[in-house]
């Protein structure tokens, strides 16, 4: 099946720890995105990548880092510098061919600071 | 200027009724306006989308109405069903910025039987 796989589904982080969220896609899409979802605030863009070895900051990049070493993978690291990391994190990919290219989302990772 | 404002925040509709969700934007560089449906604990899924050169698009019970001059667009769900109960997000894309989507705040729809 083609799609986007995020893991883990649930993640617990202690204060001061870095954690990495996995995102893998087998849709052969060039573009990948990370969004954060908080109640009542919609989805906010953290980072995005249009091509391997290149990525750009989104609206709320502080406290996060990413890498794009392979086309299929776009992991997100939530660092200890992120002061309020508890949220639902969503990864997406799109063909971005300029038409009505659909963005496909993964099932999300719920991160909780304990 | 890159915001997309969505209303209402929550909506309760009786089964068989019409659900209407509205969105407004400012940036004329947006070139694609999708609507996403999200069930609890799941990722959003594309429901229907429209380009700004079209005033209306219909897919089954779902219709997008687009008013380019007013910079507004809306989702109409006809004959709403309990299975439509979900959170709906409008979004807008800026093509020359990596295809990233700017999302509205979301509308939690509840369809009562």
Task: Please characterize this protein's 3D structure.
The complex is a heterodimer of chains A (114) and B (113). Chain A contains no helices and eleven strands. Chain A has 114 residues and is mainly beta. In chain A, strands 2, 4, 5, 6, 9, 10 and 11 form a seven-stranded mixed sheet that branches. In chain A, strands 1-3-8-7 form a four-stranded antiparallel sheet, with no helix packed on it. In chain A, strand 5 and strand 6 form a beta hairpin. The mean pLDDT of chain A is 91. Chain B is an all-beta fold. Helix content of chain B is 0%, strand content 58%. Chain B contains no helices and eleven strands. In chain B, strands 2, 4, 5, 9, 10 and 11 form a six-stranded mixed sheet that branches. The relative contact order of chain B is 0.34.
Outline:
Chain A is mainly beta and about 110 residues long.
Integer average pLDDT of chain B: 94
Q: What's the count of strands of chain B?
A: 11
Report low-confidence residues of chain B grouped into runs of 5 or more: none
Identify the overall geometry of chain A.
globular
- What is the radius of gyration of chain B computed over CA atoms, rounded to a whole number of angstroms? 14 Å
Summed up, the helix count of chain B is: 0
Q: How helical, in percent, are the residues of chain B?
A: under 10%
**Quaternary structure classification:** heterodimer
SSE-based structural type of chain A: mainly beta
Distance between the termini of chain B: 40 Å
Largest interface: A-B, 29 and 24 residues
Mean pLDDT of chain A: 91
Overall geometry of chain B comes to globular
Number of E-state strands of chain A: 11
Largest sheet of chain B: 6 strands, mixed
Strand content of chain B: over 45%
- Ends distance of chain A: 35 Å
User: Beta-strand level of the residues of chain A, as a percent range?
Assistant: over 45%
- Give the structural class of chain B: mainly beta
Q: What is the helix tally of chain A?
A: 0
């Amino acid at each position: 099946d083609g799609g986007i796989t995020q893991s883990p589904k649930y993640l617990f982080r202690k204060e001061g720890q870095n954690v990495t969220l996995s995102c893998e896609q087998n849709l052969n899409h060039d573009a990948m995105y990370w969004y954060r979802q908080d109640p009542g605030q919609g989805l906010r863009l953290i980072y995005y990548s249009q091509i391997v070895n290149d990525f750009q900051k989104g609206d709320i990049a502080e406290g996060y880092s990413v890498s794009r070493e392979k086309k299929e993978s776009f992991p997100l690291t939530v660092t200890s510098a992120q002061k309020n990391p508890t949220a639902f994190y969503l990864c997406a990919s799109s063909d971005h061919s300029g038409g009505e290219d659909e963005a496909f989302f993964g099932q999300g990772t719920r991160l909780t600071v304990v | 200027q890159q915001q997309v404002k969505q209303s209402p925040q929550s909506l309760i509709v009786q089964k068989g009724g019409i659900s209407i969700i509205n969105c407004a934007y400012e940036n004329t560089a947006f070139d694609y306006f999708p609507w996403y449906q999200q069930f609890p604990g799941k990722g959003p899924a594309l429901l229907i989308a429209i380009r700004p050169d079209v005033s209306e698009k219909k897919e089954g019970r779902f219709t997008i109405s687009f008013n380019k001059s007013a910079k507004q667009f809306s989702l109409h769900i006809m004959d709403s069903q309990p299975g439509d109960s979900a959170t709906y997000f409008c979004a807008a894309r800026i093509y020359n910025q990596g295809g990233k989507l700017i999302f509205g705040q979301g509308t939690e729809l509840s369809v009562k039987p």
